Amino acid sequence: MSDQNIIKTALLGTDKVQFDPIPDLSGIGNRIIAEQVDKEDAFLKNAAVNFLYNECGRIPRAFNGSQENCPDEEKTELDVLTGFHIRSALQLKDDVLFYYLIYRTNQANKIFGADLVPDALNKALSQKKKAEAVLTACGETGKWLAGINKNWSPLYGTAPSGEDWETGNLEWRLNYFASLRTESPSDALALLSDLQQENANTRAEFIALLEINLSINDEAFLMSVLTDKSKKVKDIAVYLLKLVPGTAINQLFLDYLLKILSVKEERVLLIAKKKVLAIDQGITPGEELFKYGLEKISSEKGVDDAVFWVAQIFGFIDVATLASKFNLSVEEWLKLVLGDKHAGVFKPFLKNAAIHFKDELLSKKLLESGIKDGIELLKFVNPKERIIFIKDLLETDFNRVLDLVLESYDIIETAIAERIFKKLSDNPYVIQTNIYQKLALSMPDGLLSLLKKYETPVSDQYQVKYFSNQVAGMIRYIELRQTLKF
Q1: Residue span of the structural domain in which 432 resides
Q2: Residue 241 has pLDDT above 60, yes or no
Q3: Is the full-model pTM beyond 0.85?
Q4: What is the bridge-based pairing of β-strands 261-268 and 272-279?
């Protein structure tokens, strides 16, 4: 049976195509037919024998090159039991457990055994956004294997065989650029000298990556990008230039802000005085500020244009810079701004500044002021102080707060964990099974006894049984976590 005949029979079926046993091995072929369960059975077995027969006697290709040995590992390998759990997680496609074990492996400064590395690299390929932690756990063995297998080489930022910055595919170049930008911003910037040869979307992707380690050293290049034909590319460049203290564009906005704003004193109850923020409605921005993205007309109903101009600029000026310009401490400046009658207009823009500058104090003050949609600010607040805000936000935006809490594998503070568990017992469908599993890995051991009370359903109601099943799964994860030794 020829390869073509096998393919034809597979496509059309054994009822429509007559196939003959292998001519050179007709005895085996006839015995297969004689003992067949049906035509399909005989066809599949004859096809298998055909492929094996064709492979027999072939001379293997000679390898004339040299192969470097894998470098010695400096870190200690995981123990056999932990390795077993990792392999099980990979085989069962249990991503929650797998990435938790990755975290614990790296936290303990250990590595996978060599037998786990190929499967782990394949996993990294399938989920590239999480690949970095996996590669760390793969150690020197992973790097060595990536040098041999071209499919794995992009994971380590090395070009596939025969490729480099000029010839590598876009995905590899973007990953390589982002990695280099982290380690050596100036070297990464130099790679963009021929950026105009790329299409507009590609140019925009590379320019956006300059936000990694963005500094005044990028100003000259970003200014040159303002002549780009693409509005999308120019808008990204302007956005970045506004964010960097000391650039010409940032200074333009800061200078205008210092003209339109002033700090005055108002008398309170005849004898007391307090400082207030004053906005001079008569000072309008120059056209170049509108050219660089300042909105001319307020998009907030009932808000004067001048107030809206100030609010927009607050979004990309560091509060410490503004405080110093008005001879105030940062605490005094924030009290002034957040106590202003226009604070509601300012807050969304101040939130952007807090996120960009990773400003802990500003984030804390905005959360204390009850800012809407302030969950993103929690990650910039001291963990001990964060608990206060989490307790309140769990009541208003449970899922998003839980996602933030579970961004790390830190054990959740007991009071918070109890509140989360109580809300889930009231409404168990609010999260999916994988979130229950991840939550279990961050639950304090002290709550295990509480969970076990819910392990057995107290009624036949579907919601009660569903929650009990989820709790039983959580208990298994907690007990497994307790057995791990790193």
Answers
A1: 383-483
A2: yes
A3: no
A4: antiparallel
